[in-house]
Design a protein that fits this description.
The complex is a heterodimer of chains A (about 120) and B (about 110). With about 120 residues, chain A is mainly beta. Helix content of chain A is about 0%, strand content about 50%. Chain A contains no helices and eleven strands. Chain A has strands at about 5, 10-15, 20-25, 30-35, 45-50, 55, 65, 75-80, 85-95, 105, 110-115. In chain A, strands 2, 4, 5, 6, 9, 10 and 11 form a seven-stranded mixed sheet that branches. In chain A, strands 1-3-8-7 form a four-stranded antiparallel sheet, with no helix packed on it. Chain B has about 110 residues and is an all-beta fold. Helix content of chain B is about 0%, strand content about 60%. Chain B has no helices and eleven strands. Chain B has strands at about 5, 10-15, 20-25, 30-35, 45-50, 55-60, 60-65, 70-75, 85-90, 100, 105-110. In chain B, the strands form two sheets. In chain B, strands 2, 4, 5, 9, 10 and 11 form a six-stranded mixed sheet that branches. A five-stranded antiparallel sheet of chain B has the order 1-3-8-7-6, with no helix packed on it. In chain B, strand 9 and strand 10 (about 100) form a beta hairpin. The termini of chain B are far apart. The relative contact order of chain B is 0.35. The chains are: A mainly beta (about 120), B mainly beta (about 110). The interface between A and B is medium-sized, with 30 and 24 residues.
Chain lengths: ~120, ~110
Amino acid sequence: DGGITQSPKYLFRKEGQNVTLSCEQNLNHDAMYWYRQDPGQGLRLIYYSQIVNDFQKGDIAEGYSVSREKKESFPLTVTSAQKNPTAFYLCASSAQTSGKQETQYFGPGTRLLVL
Amino acid sequence: SQQGEEDPQALSIQEGENATMNCSYKTSINNLQWYRQNSGRGLVHLILIRSNEREKHSGRLRVTLDTSKKSSSLLITASRAADTASYFCATFTGGGNKLTFGTGTQLKVEL
């Protein structure tokens, strides 16, 4: 799991509630990512950020929001607009070398359940 | 659709046997990566093979890449019960650092 932490490990959401998942890294990586994983499936990209104060939508951004105010932190908010939020959420980071695609390092994940 | 598709979806072997997993992808790549995920945990990077490489080794892992067939294989030799996990291939798509993952192979190594 390297130098990436995610909290909480488990999170319960009530209907209509927004919840925020935390992701912190001490690897001095410029780029950070959020993925969603459903049972028996691969990972799908929600949002990513290549530099502080900038982020882009991934493949399934609807119902989610992010911020990147600090290099170390990339919190993900699951809004009430996300109708099927139950999943395993994984945060990752990578070094950002110009023109070079880097390995991504993952946190331990947060499991979100809807009550 | 997934950029990478792993085959088989599930594999069960005895300890000491070799395990081979295959990955096919659709678009041109600069490199291909393999990751491992223990149940309920984050992913761990195993190995990266670049498009100009045909084979790469790391301990008991051997990865091959055939860019003409757009396929890669991961071989785990002398498997151990601790190798039980899901294995994913991943490639960069759309430029930048957007990794696209396959659906994974679930490997079970029995004693």
